[in-house]
Design a protein that fits this description.
Elongation Factor Tu (Ef-tu), domain 3, alpha+beta, conserved putative lor/sdh protein from methanococcus maripaludis s2 fold
């Protein structure tokens, strides 16, 4: 067999086969034409361990510190609606007036009955005193007992009349429906002329107290146990008080610091979380009941390393994937766990050492073992990367 040499034509290669060979050469992958082991330029920062605040991101919902549903306690017709919806009121402010005339008449009748009972009491007392003095002479024992019964009945009649007066006064006072708390009243669900009844299920209005206001945050019970264990071991130092910062639905940070009110003693069977309630001053009424919020809770400080969030990929199981720079300037993939976050960084308590070099950019071009051309950079508080010489 004769050897085939490039440029020599013959029957061994037909024109269609030559065309196919040329096409395959044209379709070779681009990376095959690139020089091997090309280093990737990447920004690198050196990590160091220190005391850092432990912040835990949470979500929650606002709740009124007090809320009162207003219902009538007497029957009658509404003759006046005495408040303006949405305007702050104080405890005792008149809200609704029920027609008081029937209750005024009932009070007058009760007072008249009381006067009659009180008028009969002195005569019964005198008869009893006389019978006690004359018993055994001109008054029999039977007459004395009868006088005692008459006097006791007169006293009972007075007491009953006094109770009737008190009941009538209470009913008359209830004809004026007032606010039991300070707060903001809603629009009335009745109009002047409507008939209301005692104990009806339909509310007349609702009063909601907005200052202060509660924010209920949901924290995973497992993480609370982890944090408690770190505090008990001394790994984390608890702060003098737990601080929390609220971000509203529009992304605005609420200007105020919450005070811990209570920690729930029950774990939700559906979410595995415990409720942590904070109280906020809310004079400007920026937080409203039912509003969803995001929160950052500061629990204390821990000896840990801050890993910039832009250099870490959050995994489905909650761990962080990062790339560190090895001694041979190759990328080394690492999986670490955070105990919280602060500003633009994750807090990593274990798994990283002082002096570890962390790759912070060009992560989409990096995989385990890739050669790196390291560039020393710094990261600002807002997460902007710049080289150490001041360039961008």
């Amino acid at each position: 067999m004769k050897n085939w040499k490039p440029g020599v034509t013959g029957r061994a290669l037909s024109r269609p086969l030559l065309a196919l060979a040329a096409a395959l050469l044209t379709l070779q992958p681009a990376h095959a034409q690139q020089p091997p082991n090309t280093a990737v330029n990447a920004g690198v920062v050196e990590l160091s361990r220190g005391d850092v605040p432990v912040n835990v991101p949470l979500s929650g919902q606002a709740a009124a510190s007090q809320s009162a549903t207003i219902r009538p306690l007497v029957d009658g017709v509404i003759t006046e609606i005495a408040y303006r919806p949405g305007q702050p009121i104080v405890k005792g402010t008149l809200l609704f007036q029920v027609d008081p005339r029937s209750y005024e008449a009932a009070l007058a009748s009760a007072k008249a009955t009381l006067q009659s009972a009180e008028a009969a009491l002195p005569a019964a007392k005198s008869a009893l005193d006389r019978a006690e003095r004359l018993v055994g002479s001109s008054v029999t024992q039977e007459t004395l007992e009868s006088a005692r019964v008459t006097h006791a009945q007169a006293e009972a009649t007075v007491a009953e009349a006094q109770a009737s007066v008190l009941t009538a006064e209470i009913n008359l006072a209830r004809a004026q429906i007032t606010s039991p708390i300070d707060g903001i009243p809603a629009v009335a669900d009745v109009s002047v002329g409507d008939l209301v009844t005692s104990g009806q299920s339909d509310a007349l209005t609702t009063i909601t107290s907005l200052d202060p206001i509660y924010v209920d945050l949901n924290e995973a019970s497992a993480r609370m146990l982890q944090l408690r264990a770190r505090m008990e071991s001394g790994e984390m130092k608890p702060g003098d008080r737990i601080k929390v910062r609220i971000t509203l639905e529009n992304g605005q940070v609420f200007n105020g610091e919450g005070r811990l009110d209570s920690i729930g003693s029950v774990v939700s069977t559906t979410t595995g979380t415990r409720k942590v309630r904070f109280e906020f001053a809310n004079a400007e009424r920026r937080i409203l009941p039912g509003m969803f919020v995001r929160a950052e809770m500061t629990l204390g400080t821990s000896q840990a390393i801050l890993v910039p969030q832009l250099a870490a990929t959050l995994q489905a199981d909650g761990t962080l994937k990062i790339f560190t720079l090895g001694d041979d300037n190759t990328a080394q993939e690492a999986i670490v766990s955070s105990i919280g976050s602060t500003d633009n960084a994750w807090i990593v308590a274990s798994g990283l050492e002082d002096g570890t070099r962390l790759i912070v950019d060009n992560l989409d071009r990096i995989s385990n073992g890739v050669s790196i051309n390291p560039v020393a950079v710094t990261i600002s508080d807002t997460g902007v990367i710049s080289d150490s010489q001041g360039g961008n």
